């Protein structure tokens, strides 16, 4: 496979990026290990011609940089639209954003563990597996995100 980006990103770079996101969503380190192997296999390209491997550099940055997870859990009335819009309109490099609305427990991501719906929506913002207390309004969420 070509490790260089052309008009479209390289398959290796896209695969590594997707594997890293999958690892975070599932909590399964196997996917991160696969991403690391993929990046190691194209290490010479990254060193010799980094401008030709932008997507792979994004994957490397995702792997090495600080990790951020934002978990939005809808309230019983599912009134979380304003908070969702706040998350969607905020630039969060390396960020994983997940949203829960009445999903069956067996279908939810590991990020939803111990985050059950309450009477009002909740947003959990975590950085490198250290989470802030949940916030319940779009304004509080925007303020928290601006401090991180």
Computed structural class:
alpha+beta
Q: Treating each run of at least 4 consecutive H or I residues as one helix, how many helices?
A: 6
Distance between the termini: 38 Å
The low-pLDDT segments are none
Strand order of the largest sheet: 2-1-3-4
The quaternary structure here is single chain
Give the amount of beta strand, in percent.
Answer: 5-15%
Tell how many strands the DSSP assignment holds.
Answer: 4
What is the residue-mean pLDDT, rounded to a whole number? 86
Radius of gyration: 17 Å
The percent of residues in helical segments reads 40-55%
Number of domains: 2
Q: What is the helix/strand order?
A: HHHHEHEEEH
Largest sheet: 4 strands, mixed
Shape, per Cα inertia axes:
elongated
Task: Describe the structure in your own words.
With 148 residues, the protein is an alpha+beta fold. The protein folds into two domains: 11-64, no CATH class; 68-147, no CATH class. Helix content is 43%, strand content 14%. The chain has six helices and four strands, in the order ααααβαβββα. The protein has helices at 11-26, 29-41, 43-48, 54-64, 81-88, 138-147, and strands at 68-73, 95-100, 122-127, 130-131. It has a four-stranded mixed sheet, sandwiched between helices. The radius of gyration is 17 Å and the shape is elongated.
Task: Fill in the keyword field for this structure.
2 domains, four-stranded mixed beta sheet, 148 residues, 43% helix, alpha+beta
């Amino acid at each position: 496979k070509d490790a260089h980006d052309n008009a479209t990103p390289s398959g290796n770079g896209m695969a590594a990026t997707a594997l890293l996101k999958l690892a975070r969503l599932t909590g399964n380190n196997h996917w991160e290990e696969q991403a690391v192997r993929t990046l190691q296999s194209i290490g010479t390209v990254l060193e010799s011609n980094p401008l030709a491997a932008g997507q792979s550099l994004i994957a490397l940055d995702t792997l090495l940089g600080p990790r951020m997870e934002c978990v939005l859990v809808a309230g019983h009335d599912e009134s979380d639209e304003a908070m969702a819009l706040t998350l969607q309109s905020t630039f969060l490099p390396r960020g994983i954003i997940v949203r829960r609305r009445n999903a069956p427990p067996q279908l939810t991501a590991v990020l939803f563990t111990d985050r059950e719906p309450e009477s009002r929506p909740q947003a959990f913002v975590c950085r490198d597996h250290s989470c802030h207390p949940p916030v319940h309004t779009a304004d509080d969420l925007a303020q928290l995100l601006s401090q991180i």
